[in-house]
């Protein structure tokens, strides 16, 4: 899942600085929230602000790089296994689970680009393509509803990611709505109980 703007290959020392900055960004966003200053991220990474801005022109570019890193590490391998597997429906829902787990773990990063759909396009393109392949295969195998389109799946996935706003970061409260989506998309409803319901955070909707 490549960023929309291609980055030139970096020297070893510059690549180490980029790694430190991205790791620091994830730590700082998790600890301080989506409004953390870039200066705090630079200090946490042990680099000067000039080094940070030389690699990332603004906070949005840094956030996208950090999100891209997480998708590449935690979602791409699941996609590869799903595409190589024989049960497309199971593969599709493993991919959705991986996306939701990554979204939960990186809730504050997502919060930093909330409402900026255009910014996320560059790192989700191949994810959507893979979902389309698995959907087509599952429909051919008779395990996914034939009246479900890729547009439906994109909207359902966006709805699921929105669930992150209603739960504590890192929570697995997304598992129940993800199971409800699976019930709606499979050709036959799975015979298993729904995951346990997780209460809304006490601060929600007050």
UniProtKB/TrEMBL annotation:
Pfam families from the UniProt entry: TetR_N
Residues in the DNA-binding region annotation: 37-56
Keyword Transcription regulation listed: yes
Positions of the HTH tetR-type domain: 15-74
InterPro entries associated with the record: Homeodomain-like_sf, HTH-type_TetR-like_transc_reg, HTH_TetR, Tet_transcr_reg_TetR-rel_C_sf
Annotated GO MF terms: DNA-binding transcription factor activity; transcription cis-regulatory region binding
Keywords, alphabetical: DNA-binding, Transcription, Transcription regulation
Name this polypeptide is given: Putative TetR family transcriptional regulator
Native source organism of the sequence: Arthrobacter globiformis (strain ATCC 8010 / DSM 20124 / JCM 1332 / NBRC 12137 / NCIMB 8907 / NRRL B-2979 / 168)
């Amino acid at each position: 899942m490549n960023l929309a703007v291609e980055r030139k290959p970096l020297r070893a020392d510059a690549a180490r600085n980029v790694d430190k900055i991205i790791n620091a960004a994830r730590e700082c966003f998790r600890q301080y929230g989506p409004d953390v200053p870039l200066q705090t991220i630079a200090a946490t990474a042990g680099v000067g602000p000039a080094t940070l801005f030389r690699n990332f022109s603004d906070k949005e570019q840094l956030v996208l790089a950090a999100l891209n890193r997480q998708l590449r590490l935690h979602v791409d391998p699941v996609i590869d296994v799903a595409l190589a597997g024989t049960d497309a429906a199971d593969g599709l829902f493993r991919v959705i689970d991986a996306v939701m787990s990554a979204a939960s773990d990186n809730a504050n990063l997502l919060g930093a680009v909330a409402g900026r759909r255009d910014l996320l396009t560059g790192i989700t393109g191949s994810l959507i393509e893979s979902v389309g392949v698995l959907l087509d295969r599952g429909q051919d195998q008779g395990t996914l509803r034939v009246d479900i389109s890729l547009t439906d799946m994109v909207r359902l996935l966006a709805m699921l990611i929105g669930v992150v706003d209603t739960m504590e970061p890192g929570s697995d409260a997304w598992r129940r709505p993800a199971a409800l989506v699976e019930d709606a998309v499979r050709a036959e409803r799975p015979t298993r109980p729904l995951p346990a319901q997780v209460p809304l955070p006490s601060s929600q909707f007050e």
